[in-house]
Amino acid sequence: MTPPTLRSKDLLGIEPLSPEEIALILDTAESMSSIGQREMKKVPALRGRMIVNLFFEASTRTRFSFETAEKWLSADSLNFAAKGSSVEKGESLLDTARNLQAMSPDLIVIRHGTPGVPHFLARNLKAGVVNAGDGAHEHPTQALLDALTLRRHFGRLSGLTVTITGDILHSRVVRSNIWLLTKMGARVRVCGPPTLLPPGIAEMGVEATHDFDAALDGADAVMMLRMQLERQGSSYFPSTREYFKRYGLTAPRLARAHPHAVVLHPGPMNRGVEISSEVADSPRSLILEQVSNGVAVRMAVLYLLLTGHSWEGDA
Ligand code: CP
User: Fold this and answer.
1) Which of 52, 129, 213, 283 could form a disulfide with 10 if both were Cys (CB 3.0 to 4.6 A apart)?
2) Does the C-beta of 61 come closer than 6 Å to ligand 1?
3) CB of 223 closer than 8 Å to CB of 162
4) Can you list the pairs that 37-44 forms with residues at least 24 positions away whose Cβ atoms lie under 8 Å?
């Protein structure tokens, strides 16, 4: 049975969530997505609540979709970027967070390059904490918006075969997606060059291969991951040209997947490295739908965490 709300004050990852909690977030996001279709994109659901967006790493989609979700739900937002803050004078993370806490926010949304930082804040602060990406660990709201996109397209997650290809080693998106898709009954294949496929990944309940053509065979959805050049201290493949030849998603390659297969990418894309423009801009690409669904998922997460009850609509 779907629970009326989430068990925790925080959303730190997909790993601790039950399938019922995941379904609750997706169902709530589905109901809330109509808010964005209205002429007046605002409901009073979180009026008087304060949310701090604490971004220590660059972001376009996650940061702006949290801000959009907060505005549409009438919450007050404070936006913090490490650059230009007292972090540049050496203030620690905990002191920064404690000072923000002193202004009584109800929720903190944090992106940080170090795994576990959202968990550390959740243990030390009264406010709820949402993980907006912690190092190569988890990016729970990305996996939730990917799931919403797939569920809206196929009407289900259970029984789908999803191939995830690229920089598996450095990807927080893949870890959250593996947790989510396997909990919801999908079959997951991960694929990448040997240097970017961590040993032991199959223990997460996925099939792992270096053979992209085999990984695509009959797949319902193909999720391409960004080559995270900024996290790669040394060279993991001979050249981006060579990488594209072996692991880039092109139209002829996509033909190996199921004829109804769709394409996802969390962004930002490296066109001509992991995906061709022909595929990224094709009708089979759901990449911009993912972005739109990101606002609905973030509204659902904020609402469920802050109110402690399910969404009945605002009418
Ligand atoms: N998908 C994602 O996290 O994108 P941003 O880094 O732009 O937020």
Assistant:
1) 129
2) yes
3) yes
4) 41/71, 41/72, 42/71, 42/72, 42/74, 43/72, 43/73, 43/74, 43/314, 44/74, 44/314
Q: What is the mean pLDDT of the chain?
A: 94
Mean pLDDT for 216-238 is 83
DSSP 130: E
Q: Is 64 in the pocket of ligand 1 (CB under 6 A)?
A: no
Please, what are the domains in the chain? 19-138+293-307 (3.40.50.1370), 140-291 (3.40.50.1370)
Question: Could you tell me if the CB of 62 is within 6 A of ligand 1?
Answer: yes
Helix (H, G, I), strand (E, B) or coil at 195: helix
pLDDT at 232: 61
Hunting for tokens 């990418």 — which residue is that? 265
**Is the CB of residue 290 below 6 angstroms from any atom belonging to ligand 1?**
no
